[in-house]
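ok so I'm stuck.
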Amino acid sequence: MKIKIDGRRFSAKEGETILNVAKRNKIYIPTLCYHPDLKPQGRCRVCLVEVDGKLVTSCNTKVMDNMEIFTNTKRVKEARKLNIELIYNNHSGEKELEFSVVAKELGIKKSRFEKPKKEIKSPMERDNMKCLLCGRCVQVCGAIQSINNIEFTDRGISTRISTPYDISIKDSACTFCGQCALYCPGNAIRERAYNEKVVRSLMEEMNKIINKKKFIIAQTAPAVRASLGEMFGMKPGTLVTGKMVTALRKLGFDKVFDTDFGADLTIMEEANEFVGRMKEKKNLPLITSCCPAWIKFAEQTFPFLLKNISTCKSPHQMLGAIAKTYYAQKLKLKPKDLMIVSIMPCIAKKFEAQRPEMKISGCNDVDVVLTTREIGRIIKKEKINFTDLRDGEFDDPLGISSGGGAIFGVTGGVMEAALRVAYEILTGKRLKEIDFNQVRGFEGIREADIKIDNKIIKVGVVHGLGNIRKFIESDRWKKYHFIEMMACPGGCIGGGGQPRPTTNEIRKKRMEALYRQDKKMKIRMSNKNPAIKKLYLEFLGEPLGEMSKKLLHTKYKKRKVKYT
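replied:
not stuck anymore, here's the structure
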């Protein structure tokens, strides 16, 4: 088809929207509710264009042959400005938000209209003052994650987004996956911010305002190093491991450890757990437990699966438990004298860290969880020039890790890392081919038959809660021996605490970065990590031993939800 945009002729395919054609030809049309991974809704009406004397939303209006479109008329500009004013709220100091960028482009600095009240919940916050009513969060919660926990309520100027019966997010069916926050263009729904608490603790130490009472340790998840650079204008998929470590040291952390070490420890326990269940032919399939959003989803939606879920704590909780016992003993400190700050791509980790099961040393294994976005804001606030930093190294001994730990951040990574170790345990032979490409990919539900010692191990990999629901409700899960579940699309690289924007294209670039990291590691298998070997020799004894079960394993139980 032939169409005209602002007097210029272009070719278009049947079924394309005006916005698609404009983007392809580098014609700018502002958007807010539009996201390339979601179905266009046309709610915010910021992408208005003029066609045949009428204003239409370009994101969901399909082109027609000989259509003439105007993107920048006086009428279009005025309509866009009015719509921005109607949804405009105070975003001062948050210049990177999509909404702030669009408002600035349209010359809007304040709104003439009354603002709704702020509403705060935990471990996530909702601020209706900043809500644009774009519906992205509603769509991702329902269409992609299948939770359907938030929806439009009330009418007219009272319209807002809320949970069923306005109950708190904490008491609702929310899994804290944070995808709603990841897709929100105005920061109206977000993680509960702990960054001020952390900065205050660090500054007190650095400035010697009070006597030093805490030994403060940072640990960083595998996915963070593949995404943190985006907060400073670097391309998606840029590995910033060394700069990240240096930045954390400049912030004042006493030690910087690697959650990849915790991932290696998880694999040692989980691989042995899998082998044990295979031999006993009991509670199969084994289902991974690294993802706290998946765990909460299972507790409240599929409690019959709890006996199948691994008893292993997640990697950052394992590292926290080891830091407050094994490492604290080396420092001759009490567990309460250590403050563990986990830097995660995940909002659900905030919820997980506060679970009563995660207090094996008498205090929380992990004290504070910061998202990738939060640590990025802290680094900016402290005026650290991130892109010019020299590369630093993680501290010993909890900073030594393998490639298997690195790929924990991608869908299929936990499965692959576990298979590398399980193969050697089951066969007693050295693994020649490290890569298990059968479990890699981006499809929502993947399966593979892995031959180990003349046995076929049927494995499944599922990411995204919507895919998990389909997978379980279809009873497909029953035919496998081992299943990896991740709540967020793409795994942790697409976690709810990651930089915005996050699209499937960006997720894949972050994924490629972690596979590159794995490939260049000298140690690629968790059971080859010398620091892990030393930990078992000096402290834990053996995988699934008495001390390991005490510190590194837990149990989950059925969770009630007020309304679903």
